[in-house]
């Protein structure tokens, strides 16, 4: 929060999210929502897609930004909303996707950490989020995106849940701290054990699949150079489960709500065939401050920093800081 | 083609596909198409989603069958079409998804190799496809699904491309044989080299991403117990590329049309940083019998058996037949 510190204060961000929600409310007609980003930001869109598809009669599509631009969906138009996200605000594919959405007549809202970035310039409306050591989890990208998603649900369903969603988000810092504290020792032990692991699979489904995908591609592959695949637990039994063996490591999330049965089925099998499974179960957390009907979709906001804790411990035991890259930011590609 | 051989003859299948297309044409209103399946069949749906999104103003969603059932999309209804696929016709998740679609008022069409299977019973309309040694590629699941996809495009766009699409599909056996013959020696050499490889990544994008995903989860993980991840080439630079090293093996597809630039960018990088990349490029094939506007979407029909050739050669050199499983079909899960 060094640059543009005044824009990243919580009152400023509350103003921005109010404006973004006003944009959503002002749309005459909203037929579909395209959720476009790359990598870790794309993973966030996968969670939003689940919320929108399961909660509102609006067509929602999470797409990698370049997949969006190249396939140029024929249903994109005046009655579309494009929500995009890039941490740096400089991801060219995401900037292009946002511009393509705008050119097609869609309303555009971006999430970014960098005010004044090309993404910020490309979008009609923006929400700047906090990041780094001083951040409040309630003002990070996932939490703000979560509030936008429910604003869309409200817009479609003519409901008014946004206040309770904002309230639930406000408890995030407390909940995350408690959950991280409760898991610290186990995370450290797991990380010590895996300091020389060359491959770790992740498993998750429904609103949490995106987090396990992000952990695989950004935390393990990108930041730790550990081979991985984010396996959707609903796909596990249709191929990937055959590589399960006593010494193949998995890190799995078990969520809440309708997807929980998917995760439990994968859990029952993977823990029988592998001796090396780390299970993170949302049912172990105290979510009493979150309304029950929001908990299943809220869980990914907690899995995100909980998985990050595991990556932090892993990085420490491996002597490979999460900031170290060999290609990214170091060359043209 | 041992069971129900008379239903799997080409005249019977032509009757079935005509009936399925008549079903599509008879729909008063078609707002969205849900493409639901698991594993390798789900991968096929990913290609169909690309065709539909890029070619027709209809909302299309490829979803793992259990993800579909648990999220219960709120836009599913009387104006929906559900297309499902299960090779055995016995995949419970796909049967349930088809039944859920029907219960919600959607029209349902299934693809399966097994007439009279639970999936067949669950769907309004069916297309039985050929499989195994005697099959014609023009009558396999992917080719028939391709014809259904363009029937939907015609229905939405009020065009009439289905005859030329059927004609293009009829050339598939000849094209596949030529491409497989051209690649046999290189495939065998690649397979010999990788007989003891423990991990092979796959790369692909757009209409071909599904094939590279299927190769990763079904051919490598399930049938050869080789670790893998099907990386969308558009996601490669947003995390996964950091695990690229001189000795990390990749098998990549390069397609045609608007997605080609995605594949070429990944190709340029991966071949610089890894000494172990097998490239399969659709531009190397003679597709003169396929109308130019269909070639980009047609390529996955050729990548499918071309990748299978590589798996066949790999299985031979590893002494691990593609039919051998340790869990699937051998226990309850």
From TrEMBL, chains A, B:
Gene Ontology BP, a term: fructose 6-phosphate metabolic process
Domain SIS: 23-162
Xref: PROSITE patterns: SIS
Domain of life: Bacteria
Pfam families associated with the record: SIS (PF01380)
Transmembrane segments: none
Molecular function GO labels: carbohydrate derivative binding; glutamine-fructose-6-phosphate transaminase (isomerizing) activity
Protein name as it appears in the record: SIS domain-containing protein
Species, as recorded: Acidipropionibacterium jensenii
């Amino acid at each position: 929060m060094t640059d543009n510190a005044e824009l990243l204060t919580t009152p400023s961000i509350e103003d921005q999210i109010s404006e973004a929600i006003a944009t959503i409310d002002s749309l005459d007609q909203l037929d579909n929502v395209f959720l476009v980003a790359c990598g870790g930001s794309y993973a966030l869109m996968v969670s939003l897609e689940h919320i929108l598809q399961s909660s509102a009669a609006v067509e929602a599509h999470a797409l990698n930004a370049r997949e969006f631009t190249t396939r140029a969906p024929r249903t994109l138009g005046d009655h579309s909303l494009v929500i995009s996200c890039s941490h740096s605000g400089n991801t060219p594919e995401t900037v292009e996707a946002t511009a393509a959405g705008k050119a097609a007549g869609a309303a555009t809202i971006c999430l970014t950490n960098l005010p004044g970035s090309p993404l910020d310039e490309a979008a009609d409306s923006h929400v700047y989020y906090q990041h780094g050591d001083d951040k409040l989890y309630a003002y990070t990208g996932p939490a703000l995106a979560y509030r936008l998603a429910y604003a869309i649900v409200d817009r479609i369903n003519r409901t008014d849940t946004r206040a309770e969603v904002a309230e639930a988000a406000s408890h995030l810092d407390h909940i995350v701290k408690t959950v991280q504290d409760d898991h610290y020792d186990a995370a450290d032990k797991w990380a010590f054990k895996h300091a020389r692991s060359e491959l770790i699979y992740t498993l998750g489904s429904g609103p949490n699949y995106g987090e396990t995908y992000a952990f695989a591609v950004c935390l393990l592959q990108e930041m730790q150079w550990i081979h991985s695949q984010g396996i959707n637990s609903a796909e596990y039994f249709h191929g990937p489960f055959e590589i399960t063996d006593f010494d193949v490591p998995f890190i799995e999330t078990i969520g809440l709500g309708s997807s929980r049965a998917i995760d439990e089925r994968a859990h029952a099998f993977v823990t029988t065939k592998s001796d090396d499974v780390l299970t993170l179960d949302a049912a172990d957390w105290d979510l009493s401050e979150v309304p029950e009907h929001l908990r299943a979709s809220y869980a990914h906001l907690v899995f995100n920093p909980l998985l990050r804790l595991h990556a932090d411990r892993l990085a420490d035991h491996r002597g490979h800081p999460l900031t170290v890259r060999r290609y990214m930011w170091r060359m043209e590609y």
